[in-house]
Design a protein that fits this description.
Length: about 575
């Protein structure tokens, strides 16, 4: 027995000595933290997470060390999350590309947070320094290309050169000038210099232009920012498929927030390619949306989501159809907007299609002529060019007939009607051409006297002063279907999972729809479907006439190439669509 006690006593002394040594090392690192010598975080973590430390009793020293590690981990995790932020934009092919979206001030902020830690995080600090160097070089490159920002006396510069400066400054945005001014204010040499005053003047000029454009376009109750208004309809593919697209009230707290999406583009060409890709597909997609909305009920398309008048009689006089997208709305759910005074009596544009006040082209153009070069001005100029183009094409089309009577030729009516689609999608009004187009509209799409009286009643009704919350939300058409898709995705069989992976591989390799006429939809939720016949081809939903409704009740789809007299094409389950 004494020999066993001796061995236990020896082991206890050894472990006590090891615990004392471990505690002394921990105390030494803690003293370095308090003295500002900043030991490495991994050294402190290594002591706490060592196998022997797991058996040691808790003490004040270990608890203090663990609290320091937790404090450092919180800052490190937040810094890593900020540094991983990225944004996506579409290129000219409709695909999405990722770009870093981190702001220089965010990098400097997390750098200060890391410097204030009691421990040193060398790898994170090195990453922050690399980011700061890259952003500094990028900003310096832009400064070298700006002909306006020169270190000369501002009085000796010609004001006309400032206003009509070259393309080197068109890539600049309001955010760019904010960043430049932030750097200038930190510089002992540049602060209060002529370049500082010049940059302040340019920034204020662009800010005033952005503010006046917003005032010119925004409705009293707006659900869209200025970028969504000017770049065209990129939500058509989702609406055709029946994907829920709720609208939330838009309220910006600063001018930069109004134009925040434009900061994702780094050049004029990139912005123009994006706008061109949206506008080129707008007409074909709107025709497909009209066909889909004609087949839908008012409860599926009205902004009340079918709850406001669920038991109202299906009387046509109680509903209004949108002139552009043909969506149906309860007359009690809609309100009158000032722009509809420009439409002939009996015609209505819904909240999805009428996104702004639609100012006159002459007013917008005069504002652009006096504006400084910037990416914001390029965006407005692209919208102006698109306005000139669509109105010119529409006038050429309506010149094919003359007279004030209703046109009886169905084919000609359809052609003119589809030619007018880009005009009604456009958010800038060309007054002289609009008068001729309005006259042609009454001949192509006449309305009944009952519809005119209904529009007059809506016009006389008191408009809402405040926004009515989220529109197109809470319907069984949207939410229950979303739940069913999620549920089916969770119980997806191995076979359908394999088809889904195959679709991803196919899309990555060819990125092409097999339909004879592809509408080339672009959007965040464009869906695909695969033929389960012999061809195994992939199609966009909207290119083969499929919707979210049809995919809820059937589990296979055969394209028109693989159909037989005994097999008709029908949709597969939602989990087989991308």
């Amino acid at each position: 027995l004494p020999s066993e006690l001796t061995s236990l006593l020896t082991a206890l002394r050894r472990q006590t000595h090891e615990f004392s040594v471990w505690q002394e090392k921990l105390c030494l690192l803690l003293r370095e933290c308090k003295d500002g010598r900043k030991p490495e975080l991994e050294d402190l973590r290594g002591l706490l997470d060592s196998p022997l430390a797991l058996d040691y009793p808790h003490c004040e020293v270990s608890e203090e060390a663990r609290e320091i590690v937790r404090q450092c981990d919180r800052v490190v995790n937040r810094a890593r999350a900020i540094m991983r932020q990225r944004t996506q934009i579409r290129d000219q092919l409709g695909m999405r590309e990722s770009f870093p979206v981190i702001d220089e001030r965010d990098v400097q902020s997390i750098g200060l947070d890391v410097d204030s830690l009691p421990c040193s995080v060398s790898d994170l600090r090195n990453d922050i320094m690399v980011l700061l160097k890259c952003q500094w070089l990028k900003r310096a490159h832009k400064l070298l290309n700006w002909k306006r920002l020169k270190l000369v006396d501002s009085d000796s510069e010609n004001s006309d050169d400032h206003t009509n400066d070259g393309k080197g400054s068109e890539n600049c945005t309001l955010k760019t000038f904010d960043d430049v001014l932030y750097s200038i204010r930190k510089s002992f040499i540049m602060r209060n210099s002529p370049a500082h005053a010049c940059a302040e003047e340019r920034r204020e000029g662009i800010r005033c232009f952005c503010q006046r454009i917003c005032n010119m376009f925004y409705l009293r109750n707006s659900y869209y920012n200025i970028f969504e208004i000017l770049t065209g309809r990129d939500d058509l593919a989702e609406l055709i498929e029946g994907i829920p697209m709720p609208l939330s009230p838009f309220k910006a707290y600063s001018i930069r927030e109004d134009w925040t999406y434009i900061e994702s583009f780094e050049s004029v060409e990139q912005l123009k390619n994006h706008i061109s890709s949206v506008f080129t597909k707008q007409r074909e997609l709107m025709v497909a949306l009209r066909t889909a909305n004609d087949a839908r009920s008012v409860s599926e398309t009205c902004l009340c989501a079918g709850h406001t008048q669920a038991e109202a009689p299906a009387d046509n006089c109680a509903f209004l159809s949108c002139l552009l997208c043909h969506a149906k709305y309860h007359s009690s759910c809609v309100q009158w907007e000032w722009f509809m005074e420009h439409l002939p009596v009996g015609y209505y544009l819904c909240v999805r299609c009428l996104r702004s006040r639609r100012p006159l082209l002459e007013d917008v153009k005069s504002l652009c002529e006096t504006a400084l070069p910037s990416l914001e001005r390029v965006l407005v100029e692209c919208a102006l060019n698109q306005t000139e183009l669509v109105y010119g094409e529409a006038l050429k089309c309506i010149e094919q007939f003359s007279g004030g009577n209703v046109i009886d030729d169905t084919a000609l009516c359809k052609k003119i009607d589809e030619c007018l689609i880009p005009v009604f999608c456009n958010e800038i009004l060309k007054s002289e051409a609009w008068k001729r187009i309005s006259a042609a509209l009454t001949q192509v799409k006449p309305v009944t006297e009952m519809r005119k009286r209904l529009c007059e009643q809506i016009r006389q009704r008191m408009p809402l002063i405040q926004l009515s919350g989220v529109l197109f939300s809470g319907s069984g058409f949207g939410l229950s279907r979303r739940y069913r898709n999620l549920k089916r995705g969770l119980i997806m069989s191995e076979q359908s999972a394999g088809r889904h992976m195959k679709r991803i591989k196919h899309f990555g390799e060819t990125e092409a729809c097999a339909a004879d006429i592809c509408l080339k939809p672009s959007g965040e939720n464009v869906r695909w479907i695969q033929c389960e016949g012999n061809c195994s081809r992939w199609y966009h939903y909207i290119c083969v006439g499929q919707t979210m409704d049809q995919t809820q009740y059937t589990f296979s789809y055969y394209c028109y190439r693989c159909c037989t007299p005994f097999r008709t094409p029908f949709a597969s389950s939602g989990n087989n669509a991308g």
